Amino acid sequence: MPKTALALLHLPPATAAVIEKLGADLAVARLRRKESLKTWAKRMGVSVPTLQRLEAGDPSVGIGIVATALWLIQRDGELGNLASPEHDQGAIEMDVRAALELGRARAQASAEARTRRNPAKV
Fold this sequence. Notes:
The protein is mainly α. The chain has two domains: 82 residues, 434 Repressor (Amino-terminal Domain) (Orthogonal Bundle); 39 residues. Helices cover 67% and strands 0% of the residues. The N and C termini lie far apart (65 Å).
């Protein structure tokens, strides 16, 4: 089995639904502009079947093709922010947990050091 197909087997259902919605939204954007599949595909540099797969929400369509479609409708600007570190909530939460653990460890080490220096004051 190709790597891509294996990766798609692990695609979360919610993510697959978002990709399908994106494809449908791109189809609506094309239709609102009164562009045919053939013309739009030519402008994107892809075949009509590839454009149809994109609009159907096929998750195996390459990200470059998705980016080009977004560029055609002037919505590619947000691509640079999708995975930006300042919006990575999972990593931010990990950083906070690590800082809390470090704080606890330092407080414990400080308390132990005080106890060793002044055993009578405990």
